[in-house]
Specification:
By secondary structure, the chain is α/β, with parallel strands linked by helices. The chain has 13 helices and 15 strands.
Length: 390
């Protein structure tokens, strides 16, 4: 009988721009190094004698089945609503229409609060609780605010959500039902981030902005672990991912590297395709050489709220994943997104969020260009439900 070891194998945090390390036993935000500037902190684990496949708790139908490779030290601090272990669906009707060997959809709409944000916010709130935080604040385009509100409610913590005024009402009401303080701002998520910085000057609250604390990434990376396990430890050839702040893209790539070092997977990694909105496509602009950096980029609102992130904090890490994987980035118009939502719904019975729908026209473009082969295994990662948009 195998005795399952449940403790976390986390060892330290490290600046993504250099080798400076930080303690996992103290509350951390991001690195502010003299030579590499403001950079996200990345969790590192002891992998030499690390988490084994046979230690996965097969009875745990959530992302916490991988708790040995997650950062919470005391299981009593886990704040969970059953997030993760979402369906891997075979999109056979879409595959037949476009003459594809295999098209898969990882459907994150099955998460609590209806999106993949549940993963990151469950992890971030759990770790904040473990480190003594009692109030969290977040700038959000919508779904992250709802997720933070839900997990703070579960944890008995205060949540402050700063959201663009043009965000659909369902997102706002969701936060209010969970008891969060909602603050509306004219502009995009970048403008909300400025408001958060202002609020923090007079309010004792911990900022859980995308990649500005180390642990949302650790929740998002569980998508990568699940993809591998659900495909019998063989990765797809191509993953299309809607990219705003990029945490999921970076997280999956991190998971693939961890699993390879643990000996769980072999072979090459997928080509990672970042899909953005034509209204807000900073990564595409940089990749095409039209911008040197996203720092001064000005985007505009888009139907796909989650893609309206004009200045992603983890810009360098997003670009590194695309370069290392041999992937690319491209942008899709709002009209194309709306059309794709209807096409996916009518063929596959899935009402995917606008961000997830953007992946279908992106895939078509890459098929036409010959950058994706029809005989490859293609995975589209739908990040949430469209119901809040209706």
């Amino acid at each position: 009988m195998v005795v399952k070891e449940k403790k976390s194998h986390i060892s330290f945090l490290q600046c993504s721009g250099c080798n400076k390390t930080y303690s996992v036993h103290e509350l951390q935000t991001f690195a502010d190094c003299e030579h590499c500037g403001k950079s996200p902190l990345i969790a590192h684990y002891e992998l030499l004698d690390g988490f084994r496949k046979d230690e996965i708790d097969l009875q745990e139908r959530s992302m916490w089945r991988y708790k040995g490779m997650l950062p919470v030290l005391d299981e009593e601090n886990i704040v969970s609503l059953g997030e993760g272990w979402t369906p891997m669906l075979l999109a056979n009707r879409l595959a037949a229409k476009y003459d594809l060997k295999e098209l898969l959809i990882k459907d994150e709409s099955a998460n609590p609060t209806g999106s993949f944000k549940a993963r990151g916010l469950s992890m971030a709130v759990s770790k904040a609780k473990e480190l003594g935080v009692d109030c969290c604040i977040v700038p959000t385009a919508g779904n992250a605010g709802g997720a933070l509100s839900a997990y703070c409610a579960k944890a008995g913590m205060k949540a402050i959500v700063v959201m663009p005024r043009h965000t659909p009402e369902a997102f706002k009401k969701e936060c209010q039902f969970f008891g969060a303080e909602l603050i509306e701002v004219d502009g995009l998520i970048s403008d909300c981030a400025k408001k958060v910085a202002e609020i923090k000057l007079t309010t004792d609250c911990f900022d859980i902005s995308t990649m500005k604390e180390p642990y949302r990434l650790e929740g998002k990376k569980t998508m990568g672990y699940e993809i591998a396990e659900q495909l019998n430890w063989k990765l797809p050839d191509v993953i299309l991912y809607p990219t705003g702040g990029g945490t999921g893209l970076i997280g999956m790539w991190k998971a693939f590297h961890e699993m390879k070092e643990l000996g769980w997977i072999t072979g090459s990694f997928p080509r990672m395709i970042a899909v953005q909105s034509a209204n807000c496509n900073p990564i595409v602009q940089v990749l095409e050489g039209k911008l040197d950096t996203v720092k001064n980029y000005k985007g505009s609102a888009t139907f796909a709220n989650g893609l309206a992130v004009p200045t992603p904090f983890a810009e360098k890490m997003i670009l590194n994943v695309l370069h290392e994987s041999g992937g690319t980035a491209l942008s899709i118009s709002d009209d194309e997104i709306k059309s794709a939502m209807k096409e996916i719904a009518s063929l596959e019975g899935l009402l995917v969020c606008p961000e997830g729908a953007a992946l279908l026209p992106a895939m078509k473009i890459l098929l036409d260009k010959g950058e994706i082969d029809r005989n490859e295994t293609i995975l589209m990662l739908n990040t949430g439900s469209a119901y809040k948009y209706l």
